[in-house]
Specification:
The chain is built from nine helices and 17 strands. Strands 4-3-1-5-13-8-14-12-11 form a nine-stranded mixed sheet, with helices on both faces. Strand 9 and strand 10 form a beta hairpin. The chain has a domain of 206 residues: Spore Coat Polysaccharide Biosynthesis Protein SpsA, Chain A (Alpha-Beta Complex). Helix content is 30%, strand content 22%.
Length: 299
Amino acid sequence: MTEIKIKDNQYPPSQKRNIDLVITGSSRPQLFPFCWESFKKYVHFRGNLRVIFNEDFVFPKESHKMIKYLEGLRDKGEIHEIIIHNPAIGLGNSLDHLIKHEIKSDFIFYLQDDWEFEVPIDLDRLLWIMERNPKINLIFLNKSKNWPKLSETLYPQYTFDFVDFTLFHGWSFLPGIWRMKKVREKWKVRDIRPEGFFTNQFGNHEQRLDIKYCKENLGAYALGKNGEDRYIRHIGYDWRMANWRLQDGGKVPGGTYDKELMDYRFRPAWLPKLIDTPHRKVVYEKEDIKQMLSEEIGM
């Protein structure tokens, strides 16, 4: 049999890559198992994956349950580092700690604890594309659709190494691959929502309406064609526990999009029927969350 030699610029890659999987969580032990099991099922990677989980203690009772679950995964070798912030410091400050002290790889796969994967993702191929195209700094997975146009902003479609992408005008905190050299170049912090301060380092509103500027200076792309359905399902919705999401003086969690709209309008039609996850059960209605809050903070 003739040996097939694979060059470095060909896919599949000849070498194993190292990447840190960075997961941010905040008191949601009921949701993360759906996220983690779907990640193992749908995200394909043949390299060395170092898993770092950052838990923000928004509700300490729930976070303690989360830590116990994570310790079980660590005992099985599925998770390698568990970072704890008690009291909670918020998403931006958590990322600041991770960027400065924990992340070691040139690229990271960023994930939050309330995302459930629905379709396969070839992480090896996406990393290979980013290595070959140094102006791609972010590839993220949409929770809805890849919009051709939103408001006055156009999102044109491009193809890199036979894979389709849709240009985006800002840094997305949806699950995706980050080029850490670019992140560290732009990363700055402030006291209020430092993650938003970081996003603003990529240019003002007028600049990010310019397609050429976004390609040259931002390099953020959604995986897939214009109009393509989501890759992941957001199962948190009203269970948004980052500190800045809490409304009414920190007593009521804020919401996002309508869960029925997100579940059916943006889900690929060829997928099987949805299976219930906790956000669709009564236990996660706002009255139940308010009751938990009253137990935690003496409301």
